């Protein structure tokens, strides 16, 4: 099995091996891709760690299985801020050597200076990031209390409020409905399917519609949202121009009838 490491800020996964086509997903800096097939003109058919497939160009990745396996063992931290400049020195008067978005995986060194921490990027370069922008990379949610995890999921999703809609997007630069839900779960140690559906082999399971709580997902035809409590849900929609909060309650001003009346199912990891 050949592996690749995403070295760019974002690696677009296209539905076909060319730039001028629909984007299927985005892999963030530090994420790992499995190479399924090499194609002409620098394109590769790849699969993400959550089994989502697409075509990525060689300019966004580093193909080195040994290096990638080592990264998997050593990269234990994640960027927890929306968009971060990685600086050449521990001061903003320096210059940015790279940019990373929330959910990017990085390697943290033991070097600090004042409020800064030195990190290692997946391409091997070292740079400085404000320590407050770095969190622990969670690979499991099993040891987190349910109420804490539900609150964390909701707060993570709320951080994307106002982000523009982007088909296949998964960052504060632009995000779609399943991108919002899947990245919110990923950041909190849970892997769910990338599309607006429940699929076998992932953490998400179907629950009765009357049983959903905050942090659970609500599925509509071709759409998915996260429930916030008090009839409210957060979702990314092109008709809403991005990430917004709406309500299932017809008495609320932000009630969205077309969705409230077309709920297919609800899902939970709890």
Structure description:
The structure is a single chain. The protein contains four helices and 22 strands. With 270 residues, it is mainly beta. It has three domains: 2-73, SH3 Domains (SH3 type barrels, Roll), CATH 2.30.30; 75-136, SH3 Domains (SH3 type barrels), CATH 2.30.30; 146-268, endopeptidase domain like (from Nostoc punctiforme) (endopeptidase fold (from Nostoc punctiforme)). A six-stranded antiparallel β-sheet has the order 17-22-18-19-20-21. The protein has a five-stranded antiparallel β-sheet with strand order 6-5-4-1-7, covered by helices on one side. Helix 2 (146-158) packs across helix 3. The two termini are 33 Å apart.
Could you name the CATH homologous superfamily of the largest domain?
endopeptidase domain like (from Nostoc punctiforme)
Q: Percent helix among the residues?
A: 10-25%
- Helix/strand order, N-terminal first: EEEEEEEHEEEEEEEHEEHEEEEEHE
Q: Any low-confidence stretches, pLDDT <50, length ≥5?
A: none
End-to-end separation in angstroms reads: 33 Å
Structural class: mainly beta
Number of domains: 3
């Amino acid at each position: 099995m050949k592996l690749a490491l995403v070295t760019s800020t974002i690696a677009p996964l296209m539905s076909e091996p060319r730039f001028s086509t629909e984007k299927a997903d985005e892999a963030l800096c530090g994420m790992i891709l499995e190479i399924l097939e090499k194609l002409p003109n620098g394109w590769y058919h790849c699969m993400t760690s959550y089994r989502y497939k697409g075509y990525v160009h060689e300019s966004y990745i580093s193909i080195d299985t040994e290096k990638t396996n080592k990264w998997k063992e050593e990269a234990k931290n994640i960027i927890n801020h929306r968009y971060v400049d990685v600086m050449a020195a521990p001061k903003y008067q320096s210059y940015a050597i790279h940019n990373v978005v929330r959910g990017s995986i990085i390697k943290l060194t033991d070097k600090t200076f004042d409020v800064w921490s030195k990190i290692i990027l997946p391409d091997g370069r070292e740079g400085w990031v404000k320590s407050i922008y770095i969190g622990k990379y969670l690979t499991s949610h099993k040891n987190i209390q349910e109420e804490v995890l539900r609150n964390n999921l909701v707060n993570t999703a709320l951080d994307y409020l106002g982000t523009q809609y982007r088909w296949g997007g998964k960052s504060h630069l632009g995000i779609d409905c399943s991108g919002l839900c899947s990245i919110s779960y990923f950041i909190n140690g849970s892997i769910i399917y990338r599309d607006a559906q429940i699929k076998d082999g992932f953490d998400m399971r179907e629950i009765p519609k009357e049983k959903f709580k905050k942090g659970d997902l609500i599925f509509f035809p071709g759409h998915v949202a996260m429930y916030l409590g008090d009839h409210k849900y957060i979702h990314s929609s092109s008709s809403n121009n991005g990430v917004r909060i709406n309500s299932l309650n017809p008495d609320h001003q932000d009630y969205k009838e077309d969705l409230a009346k077309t709920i297919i199912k609800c899902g939970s990891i709890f």
